[in-house]
Specification:
One of its GO terms (molecular function) is phosphorelay sensor kinase activity. This protein is an alpha+beta fold. Helices cover 59% and strands 14% of the residues. It is built from 13 helices and 10 strands.
Length: 403
C-alpha cells in the first residue's frame, strides 16, 4: 500500500503578524484624524501634510512586509523606525508651542508603537528593547522636558514591546518542542507497527524453526540454534530504537513544520466477517452477525490481524488440543470481537515478564494495534479456565472524528 505525507504546520506567532498589519492601518487613520481635529495647532501644516502623505504611502506599500518574520527584513525595520523617528522629531517644528505644552500627540502618534512591535515579533525582546530606546529619546526631546504623560507613554511602549517580544520567543520554543514531540510520537508508532509485522511473520517462523530443529536433532538442531539466536537478536532490535519517520523543519512563513508519513485509509468499508472467516476451522469456532460488519479498510485489517495474533498465542501456549472461539458483535458505535480459548490460562505476571523479554505478541500485535485505532484490548485469564481477549474498535477513526 502506498504511503502519503501529511504536513502539519504550527505557528502561534502568525496571528500576531496579522494583528500588526491591522494595527498599522488603523493607527495611520487615527494619526490622520488627530491631525485633522487639531489643524489650527499647526504652524506649518504643509510640512505635516507632506509627512502624512509619505506615511500613508509607506504604510500601505509595506503591508506585505509585516505578514511574516521572513518578509520583515532588517532593512525594512530600520527604514520603518526611521520614518517613525522623523515624524516625532518634526513635530516641534510644525506645531505651536501651546500644542506641545498641552501634551498634544506627535505627528505619527501611536503609529510608532507598530514599528517597535515589528522589531519584537521579528527578533524577540532584545530587538524590542533596542527599538524602544531611540523612540523614548525622541519623545523626550520633542517635549523638551520629562513630563509625566510623556514618561508614562515611553515606559508603556517599552514594557509592552519587550513583553510581546518575550512571548514570541517562548512561543517559538514551544513550537519546536511540540514539533519534536510529534516527531517522536510518529516514529514510535511506526516502530510499533513494524514490530507487529515482524512479530506476525519473521519471529513466528524463527521460533518454529528453532522448535522443529530441536526435535529433529543433527544438523537441524544446529539450524534451530542459529534460528533461536537470530530470534533473540531481532526481538532486541525491535524492542529498542526509534525509526526516524517524521521530519521537523523551520519555516519563518509557517512556523514549525512537521512532515509525517502515514498510510492512507482509502476505499470503501470492508466486511470484517470476510477477513475473519479464514481463521475458522475444526478447532476455531466463529460466531458472527448475519449482516455485514463494515469498518474502514485499515481498521478492519488491523482488527483481523489482532485476532490472528490472539489465535497464534492460543496455538503456542494452550497446546495443539486447545479450542478457541471468535465472537463478533456489531454495536451501534463500535465493533467488539472476543477471542476465548479453553487452555490452561496465563500465570499471573507472565505478560509483564514476556514484554520485558522482548516478546511483543500481546503488547504490540494486539494492544498496540487497537490503541492506534482508538480502540482497546482487554485480556482476562484465569489459571485452569482459559483466556479471553476482548477487542473493541470504534466505527469512526479518531482522525476522521476530529475532522
Amino acid at each position: 500500500m502506498s504511503k502519503r505525507e501529511r504536513v502539519i504546520r504550527m505557528s502561534v506567532e502568525q496571528p500576531l503578524w496579522r494583528a500588526l498589519t491591522g494595527y498599522r492601518v488603523l493607527t495611520l487613520l487615527y494619526a490622520i484624524g488627530l491631525f485633522a481635529s487639531a489643524y489650527d495647532d499647526y504652524d506649518r501644516a504643509g510640512v505635516a501634510l507632506a509627512y502624512f502623505a509619505v506615511l500613508t504611502v509607506w504604510t500601505l506599500a509595506t503591508l506585505p512586509r509585516v505578514q511574516s518574520a521572513a518578509a520583515c527584513t532588517k532593512r525594512f525595520l530600520a527604514v520603518d523606525l526611521a520614518v517613525a523617528l522623523t515624524g516625532i522629531v518634526l513635530t516641534p517644528w510644525v506645531v505651536t508651542q501651546g500644542h506641545i505644552d498641552r501634551g498634544g500627540p506627535t505627528l505619527p502618534s501611536i503609529w510608532t508603537a507598530g514599528s517597535v512591535l515589528a522589531f519584537a515579533l521579528k527578533g524577540g525582546w532584545r530587538w524590542a528593547a533596542f527599538a524602544s530606546t531611540p523612540v523614548a529619546v525622541a519623545n523626550l526631546v520633542e517635549r523638551g522636558h520629562p513630563a509625566r504623560d510623556t514618561v508614562h507613554s515611553v515606559v508603556l511602549v517599552w514594557v509592552a514591546s519587550i513583553a510581546i517580544g518575550y512571548v514570541v520567543e517562548v512561543a517559538r520554543a514551544s513550537e519546536r518542542t511540540l514539533a519534536r514531540a510529534l516527531e517522536i510520537e510518529a516514529a514510535t508508532r511506526e516502530r510499533e507497527r513494524l514490530a507487529r509485522d515482524i512479530h506476525d511473520g519473521v519471529l513466528q517462523v524463527l521460533a518454529m524453526v528453532q522448535r522443529r530443529g530441536t526435535v529433529l536433532g543433527g544438523d537441524a538442531a544446529e539450524l534451530g540454534r542459529l534460528a533461536g539466536e537470530q530470534e533473540v537478536a531481532l526481538r532486541t532490535l525491535v524492542s529498542g530504537g526509534l525509526v526516524p519517520l517524521s521530519r521537523v523543519s523551520e519555516d519563518e512563513t509557517q512556523g514549525a513544520v512537521v512532515r509525517l508519513v502515514e498510510e492512507p485509509d482509502d476505499g470503501g468499508p470492508v466486511d470484517l466477517r470476510a477477513l475473519l472467516a479464514r481463521y475458522a476451522g475444526s478447532r476455531v469456532g466463529l460466531a458472527e452477525p448475519g449482516a455485514p460488519v463494515e469498518l474502514p479498510p485499515r481498521a478492519a485489517r488491523e482488527l483481523a490481524a489482532a485476532v490472528g495474533a490472539a489465535l497464534d498465542n492460543v496455538r503456542r501456549h494452550a497446546g495443539d488440543g486447545a479450542r478457541a472461539w471468535i465472537l463478533v458483535e456489531d454495536e451501534p458505535g463500535e465493533v467488539v470481537v472476543t477471542v476465548r480459548d479453553d487452555g490452561p490460562g496465563i500465570p499471573e505476571g507472565r505478560l509483564a515478564q514476556a514484554e520485558g523479554e522482548g516478546r511483543l505478541g500481546v503488547a504490540q500485535s494486539i494492544r498496540g494495534r487497537l490503541r492506534d485505532l482508538g480502540g482497546s484490548a482487554e485480556l482476562v485469564s484465569t489459571p485452569g479456565q482459559g483466556t479471553e481477549v476482548e477487542l473493541k474498535v470504534p466505527k469512526v477513526s479518531p482522525g476522521k472524528a476530529e475532522r
